[in-house]
Amino acid sequence: MITSKSKYTQFIKSEAKRLGFLSCGVSKAGFLEQEAPRLEKWLNNNHNGQMSYMENNFDKRLDPTLLVDGAKSVISLVLNYYPESLQVENSYKISKYAYGTDYHYVIKDKLKELLFSIQENIGEVAGRAFVDSAPVLDKAWAAKSGLGWIGKNSNLLTQKVGSFYFIAELIVDLDLDYDFATTDHCGTCTACIDACPTQAIVAPYVVDGSKCISYFTIELKENIPQEMKGQFDDWAFGCDVCQDVCPWNKFSKPHNEPLFNPNTEILSMSKKDWDEVTEETFKAVFKDSPLKRSKYTGLKRNIDFLK
């Protein structure tokens, strides 16, 4: 059995690496003081649009001890999804994170394995795994634990690998050695703000979610407002523009997670192929894909809007 706090921390980080995570950082579970007024202001400005779930569990979003009894540590992990190959030119675009298997399944399995390994080697540790489907401010926790800084496009950025990765957490009732936040390296750069097709980055570090192409093509369930016509730059599911133009993403390296390998059909599809997708084909090609989230009707709506 492993006994000391620093050995626990070391063990958890090496296990995270073994499971394929890009990096792992730890912070003390507690109330996110700086985030509280920021989140409140963002919600008051209706930057969440119709994502009403962002208004729920306000307190839990800011305090992980309300999610896990006796929580002492937030273990933040990032998993690379940057693909080796991209879609063909002149196609309707989908976010790179949606090329392969839905990340919720992939990461949940890794987190369960990590928690099991902690319990097996350290002892009785209670905890919960989170992959962006619960009220956890994952970017804030990842930044607090030194995994990167939150950039002007509100994504977590790192100098070594940019921002094409998923963030997840284990919240546990175990005391660990805590990491320190890193510094901001956005400097005077405004590439993401200047490039956003719908001007959704309304101020440095502030994204109006209700103006974001990802919001319109994934979250919005009703018709896309006509005034947005011609502004989507052929994005049919999500949008990567603010990441694609970020200078730090010059350092992105292809992932090594087989489950994120793209379905070759998706990468080679032309606009004509997308137009001709039937519900049957959609179910077959995208059965384990994040695109399932928009459903066949949502994808068709998005593509029709782009014409």
UniProtKB/TrEMBL annotation:
Binding, cob(II)alamin: R61, D132, N153, L156, I167, S214, C239, D240
Cofactor: [4Fe-4S] cluster; cob(II)alamin
Pathway where this protein functions: tRNA modification; tRNA-queuosine biosynthesis
GO MF term (any one): cobalamin binding
Superkingdom to which the source organism belongs: Bacteria
List of residues binding tRNA: K221
Catalyzed reaction equations: epoxyqueuosine(34) in tRNA + AH2 = queuosine(34) in tRNA + A + H2O
Residues annotated as binding [4Fe-4S] cluster 1: C186, C189, C192, C246
GO CC terms: cytoplasm
Pfam family, any one: QueG_DUF1730
Keywords recorded for this protein, A-Z: 4Fe-4S, Cobalamin, Cobalt, Cytoplasm, Iron, Iron-sulfur, Metal-binding, Oxidoreductase, Queuosine biosynthesis, tRNA processing
Gene3D superfamilies: 3.30.70.20
Active site (catalytic residues): D132 (proton donor)
PROSITE patterns found in the cross-reference section: 4FE4S_FER_1 (PS00198), 4FE4S_FER_2 (PS51379)
Claim: Iron-sulfur is one of the keywords in the record: yes
Domain 4Fe-4S ferredoxin-type per the UniProt entry, residue ranges: 177-206
EC supergroup of this enzyme: oxidoreductase
EC code(s) of this entry: 1.17.99.6
Residues where [4Fe-4S] cluster 2 binds: C196, C212, C239, C242
Family to which the UniProt record says this protein belongs: Belongs to the QueG family.
Function: Catalyzes the conversion of epoxyqueuosine (oQ) to queuosine (Q), which is a hypermodified base found in the wobble positions of tRNA(Asp), tRNA(Asn), tRNA(His) and tRNA(Tyr).
HAMAP family for this protein: QueG
Record text on subunit structure and interactions: Monomer.
Protein's UniProt name: Epoxyqueuosine reductase
Source organism of this protein record: Flavobacterium hiemivividum
